[in-house]
Design a protein that fits this description.
Blueprint lengths: L4 H26 L3 H22 L1 H14 L8 H4 L5 H34 L5 E3 L5 E3 L2 H7 L14 H9 L14
Antiparallel strand pairs: 1-2
Helix pairs in contact: 1-2, 3-5
Length: 183
């Protein structure tokens, strides 16, 4: 099985707790010294708490891992788990998942930059109109075509009533050809 800091830590802490409890039992049977017994009891409680804290290391690391994933924080490292045989599989799996998430994020960011560059340089004017009528000019061709910043669909009326009405009637997933009047 080999050396494991986890197993050694559990054995040492359990042994110390056992010795403390035996000493407490001996004191309770052989003496009336209540203050030393209270101190030994406090030591036993502290040792039990430390044993529980040590034994739940993997749970805390899994919680830290899940929190890092939920906050999209790919900078976390779980190499501390790799040093102990009892946790090496867990540490390896967590590190592998974090690396895959890092790579995936980098690929998504590169793809988003590529798409943004592509949209910016398309020679056709691209605009976006949301459900509230707010307008966004998506590329340079749209900014050149409309020459001014537009923020609502109502502002398209200066390019013709039929143009503005056609844009307002346009629904997601549909396309249409509209005639624009320039003054």
């Amino acid at each position: 099985m080999g050396f494991s800091r986890f197993h050694t830590g559990i054995a040492v802490r359990t042994g110390a707790l056992f010795v403390t409890l035996v000493a407490l039992a001996q004191m309770a049977v052989r003496t009336q010294w209540y203050v030393p017994m209270a101190l030994v009891l406090a030591a036993a409680v502290i040792q039990a708490a430390l044993l529980i804290r040590f034994a739940t290391t993997s749970t805390r690391e899994v919680a830290r891992f899940l929190e890092a994933v939920s906050f999209d924080d790919h900078t976390q490292s779980f190499s501390r788990l790799l040093g102990d045989r009892a946790y090496s599989e867990l540490g390896t799996a967590m590190s592998r998942v974090m690396e895959l998430l890092r790579v995936g994020r980098a690929e998504r960011e590169a793809q988003a930059r590529y798409q943004q560059t592509l949209i910016s340089h398309v020679p056709v004017a691209l605009i976006s109109v949301d459900e509230n009528g707010r307008v966004q000019l998506l590329n340079m061709a749209a900014r050149r075509l409309f020459e001014t910043s537009l923020s609502t669909v109502a502002q398209f009326a200066r390019y013709g009533e039929s143009f503005a009405a056609g844009l307002e009637a346009l629904r997601p997933g549909t396309s249409t050809l509209l005639k624009m009047e320039r003054s």
